[in-house]
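Exercise 7b. Backbone tokens:
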């Protein structure tokens, strides 16, 4: 049985769906502060907080959990800079409590949601796993601390982990009934599409004076189902009692302006943009080298084109 913390969230719910499709037994553990009950209607859901040690232990025992996929976390760069304490308590404190519950109850396998934000401003692009780790924002620092905790627990207690450093998750499942739904929404692609839809007046571009060809930040957008599939491969890898760290991206970068241009093409609508100041904590360019996960886990992304990724997000956005 797989325990999926944060399984009612955006990436979590897509992973849960793929796990169930592949025949895994899954129990979702989510406090529903960010996640949605409707996103996990096909699986068992326990509403609880990862910092509730006894509740986690009870769920592990009740369902016979042998591995954990740990998504539950706050994940907004801007918010993390405004309220670091909330991020350290929830992400680092919450994970430490979860790990204690796991080990107290004999569970020693975890797939961990890390982030490209652990690299900060990269020395080399595309970024390899052994590139310098130097996060420029609190969110990235919380994830790097947890990566290090996992390494230490592996050495001391034999906890096996796979840390997946996600680049920018985007898109939605083709079935059209689950997708990205944050409140408040802060991510580029959903905001751009809400502007195309007429729900928002304009999209603000955070900084046009970066050292990139068009002056806006460059990111590597990866489809949420491709991310989800990597977690399932990581679980299989853990079964052989190994630990590792992998990047997860498409390997191509798009600027904020290119994303908006592509969204205009996909939606056939004009999207009003307003150029504003930089957002604190944003690295200029983040592009993944994902060769390691392709080689070691046999991962292969299915959605490699940005317009196809945005198309799935647009279908989800327009569903009602
Ligand atoms: N961004 C933007 N306007 C917005 C939201 C995001 O210009 O309303 C930029 C942001 O500065 C970053 C990129 O879009 O360079 C992706 O941001 P997002 O918040 O989607 O993901 P992040 O890279 O922070 O995880």
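Sequence design result:
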């Amino acid at each position: 049985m797989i325990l999926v913390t944060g399984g009612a969230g955006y990436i979590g719910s897509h992973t849960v769906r793929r796990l169930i499709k592949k025949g895994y037994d899954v129990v979702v553990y989510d406090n529903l502060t960010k996640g949605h009950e409707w996103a996990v209607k096909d699986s068992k859901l326990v509403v609880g907080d990862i910092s509730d040690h006894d509740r986690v232990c009870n769920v592990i025992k009740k369902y016979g959990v042998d591995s954990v996929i740990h998504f539950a976390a706050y994940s907004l760069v801007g918010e993390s800079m405004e309220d670091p304490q909330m991020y350290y308590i929830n992400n680092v404190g919450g994970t430490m409590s979860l790990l204690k519950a796991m080990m107290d109850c004999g569970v020693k396998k975890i797939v961990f949601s890390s982030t490209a934000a652990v690299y900060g401003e990269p020395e080399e692009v595309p970024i390899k796993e052994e590139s310098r780790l130097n996060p420029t924002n609190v969110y990235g620092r919380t994830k790097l601390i947890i990566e290090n905790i996992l390494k230490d627990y592996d050495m001391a207690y034999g906890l096996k982990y796979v840390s997946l450093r996600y680049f920018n998750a985007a898109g939605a499942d083709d079935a059209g009934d689950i997708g990205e739904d944050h409140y408040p929404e802060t991510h580029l692609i959903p905001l751009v599409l809400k502007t195309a839809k007429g729900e928002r007046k304009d999209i603000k571009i955070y900084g046009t004076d970066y050292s990139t060809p068009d002056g806006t930040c460059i990111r590597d957008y990866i489809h949420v189902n491709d991310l989800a599939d990597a977690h399932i491969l990581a679980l299989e890898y853990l079964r052989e009692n190994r630990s590792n760290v992998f990047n997860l991206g498409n390997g191509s970068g798009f600027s904020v302006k290119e994303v908006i241009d592509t969204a205009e093409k996909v939606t056939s609508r004009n999207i009003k943009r307003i150029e504003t100041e930089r957002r604190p904590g944003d690295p200029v360019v983040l592009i993944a080298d994902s060769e390691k996960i392709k080689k070691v886990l046999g991962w292969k992304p299915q959605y490699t084109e940005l317009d196809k990724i945005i198309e799935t997000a647009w279908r989800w956005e327009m569903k009602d």
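Instructor comment: Residues 77, 168, 186-188, 191, 203-206, 217, 219, 256, 279, 282 surround uridine-5'-diphosphate (CB under 6 Å). The CA atoms of residues 76 and 139 lie 7 Å apart.
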